């Protein structure tokens, strides 16, 4: 066999592998609503998730991506007002990198799946307390609030590890597109508990 024939054969083999890999690859983008509890703080809000998935077996996928759990506005650039202290709301921002395995069962209309995985989480939070107080969690910063007096801001930024279990369904809406609906339960360090309901779009390459 000549070098030219070997080269063509190797190139054809590489292209075949790339085509096979592309057939097993997909991407997902979802938006959702989260109920977040961290230490003793609880909050609810919108988030989103984006991931790449790959079919490693007729009944198994692996997915990796980024997930925003919740995203409140923090007091990072403006001093809180007297109204902010009176409302005493907890502001949180939480996100994660994740790796999951999905087991699936196919049907004519789509795929039922369950998710098992791990997340590398990062949760930032702030809580305002009237007066000079000690924080049960996080660092205490005493502020002088106009038309109010002293207030304490409890501020924390904690990283950790969490596990996730989810169940969902990918519904065929086109030759390569699927509508995804999923519910997830996340449990992690520092009493992190997140329940999310997501809806999104999956595209198969």
Question: What does it look like?
Answer:
With 205 residues, the chain is mainly beta. It has a single domain (26-204), classed as Porin (Beta Barrel), CATH 2.40.160. 13% of the residues lie in helices and 67% in strands. The protein is built from two helices and nine strands. The chain has helices at 3-23, 82-87, and strands spanning 25-38, 41-57, 60-71, 90-107, 110-130, 139-145, 149-172, 177-188, 192-204. Strands 1-2-3-4-5-7-8-9 form an eight-stranded antiparallel barrel. β1 (25-38) and β2 (41-57) form a beta hairpin. The chain is elongated and about 65 Å long. The chain starts with a helix and ends with a strand. The model is unreliable at 13-18 (pLDDT under 50).
Provide the descriptors you would attach to this structure in a database record.
mainly beta, Porin, 2 helices, 205 residues, elongated
Number of domains: 1
> What fold name goes in the CATH topology slot?
Porin
Strand content: over 45%
In CATH terms, what is the architecture? Answer: Beta Barrel
Distance between the termini: 35 Å
CATH class: Mainly Beta
Indicate the topology.
Layout: H1 3-23, E1 25-38, E2 41-57, E3 60-71, H2 82-87, E4 90-107, E5 110-130, E6 139-145, E7 149-172, E8 177-188, E9 192-204
Antiparallel strand pairs: 1-2, 1-9, 2-3, 3-4, 4-5, 5-7, 6-7, 7-8, 8-9
Quick overview of this protein structure:
This protein has one domain (26-204): Porin, CATH 2.40.160.20. Helix content is 13%, strand content 67%.
